[in-house]
């Protein structure tokens, strides 16, 4: 009988290829900026200058202020997307007539880039947080809605028949059978939404706001602080990676493989 492999060994086996890929990416970056011999603008984008700027930024209170504002917007946008997407997904997935009526419209709206709404949203909602939150919620809505609907369709019909045979009310059927059964699908949609919302966040914050990571990128450009600009881009990537890791952990915790 084959002995199960140790958890630490399996984690290490998965970790090292990832570290190697990141090292290769840094090496390509180093070569693309002149392998340490570049001058002028290219030198400002070199890994050494960027990492030095990143270390300085992490000690600067302004970065944490902008970071906190952006994270608050992301969480609010995702909360709005969840509050709208889960009920709509339950309805679309559970009622065929609703699915037939609204799915073409939803598919049409889903294919419109959220950023294309920026001029319209600013004219209607003005400048500030409201247009940014609308764009984030609009971007994050569709993965949650579609995955929730798919989760409802994949429910084992025997569980629903069993609940009905036990005279369960609609509310009991929803709370005890449907919602627990679709949580894994909702978390999958949430993970996809986090990636989309995080991508939309930065350009959305470049219009009509005075705080946030997108605003901070424009500020570094205007100050010609190019190494700080690239360092901010790295911080955005690291934060996005951390949010995606958290979403994956939540999914594994709820739906163990």
Automatic annotation (TrEMBL):
Recite the UniProt keywords alphabetically: Cell membrane, Membrane, Transmembrane, Transmembrane helix, Transport
Matching entries from CDD domains are given as: TM_PBP2
Which InterPro entries does the entry mention?
MetI-like (IPR000515), MetI-like_sf (IPR035906)
Cross-referenced PROSITE patterns, in alphabetical order? ABC_TM1
Q: Which Pfam families match?
A: BPD_transp_1
Q: Where in the cell is it found?
A: Cell membrane
| Transmembrane segments annotated in the record for this chain | 12-32, 74-95, 107-126, 132-152, 173-190, 196-217, 229-250
User: Locate the ABC transmembrane type-1 domain: which residues?
Assistant: 67-247
Q: Where is the signal peptide?
A: none
Q: How does it sit in the membrane?
A: Multi-pass membrane protein
Superkingdom is: Bacteria
Which family does the similarity line name? Answer: Belongs to the binding-protein-dependent transport system permease family.
What PANTHER family does the record point to? ALKANE SULFONATE ABC TRANSPORTER-RELATED, MEMBRANE SUBUNIT, TAURINE TRANSPORT SYSTEM PERMEASE PROTEIN TAUC
Q: What is this protein called?
A: ABC transporter permease
* Organism phylogeny: Bacteria, Pseudomonadati, Pseudomonadota, Betaproteobacteria, Burkholderiales
């Amino acid at each position: 009988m084959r002995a199960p492999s140790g958890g630490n060994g399996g984690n290490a086996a998965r970790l090292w290829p990832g570290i190697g890929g990141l090292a290769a990416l840094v090496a390509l970056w180093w070569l693309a900026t002149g392998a340490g011999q570049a001058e002028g603008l290219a030198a400002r984008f070199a890994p050494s200058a960027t990492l030095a700027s990143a270390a300085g930024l992490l000690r600067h209170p302004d970065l944490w202020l902008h970071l906190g504002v952006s994270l608050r917007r992301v969480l609010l946008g995702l909360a709005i997307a969840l509050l709208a997407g889960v009920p709509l997904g339950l309805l679309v997935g559970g009622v065929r007539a609703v699915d037939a009526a609204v799915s073409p419209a939803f598919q049409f709206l889903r294919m419109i880039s959220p950023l294309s709404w920026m001029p319209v949203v600013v004219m209607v909602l003005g400048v500030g947080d409201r247009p940014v939150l609308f764009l984030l919620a609009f971007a994050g809505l569709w993965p949650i809605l579609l995955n929730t609907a798919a989760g409802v369709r994949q429910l084992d019909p025997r569980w629903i028949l069993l609940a009905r045979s036990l005279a369960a009310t609609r509310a009991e059927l929803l709370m005890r059978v449907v919602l627990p059964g679709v949580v894994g699908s909702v978390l999958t949609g949430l993970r996809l939404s986090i990636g989309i919302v995080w991508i939309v966040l930065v350009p959305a914050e470049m219009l009509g706001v005075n705080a946030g990571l997108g605003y901070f990128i424009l500020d570094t450009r205007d100050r010609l602080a190019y190494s700080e600009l690239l360092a901010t881009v790295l911080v955005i990537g690291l934060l996005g990676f951390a949010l995606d890791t958290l979403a994956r952990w939540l999914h594994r915790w709820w739906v163990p493989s």
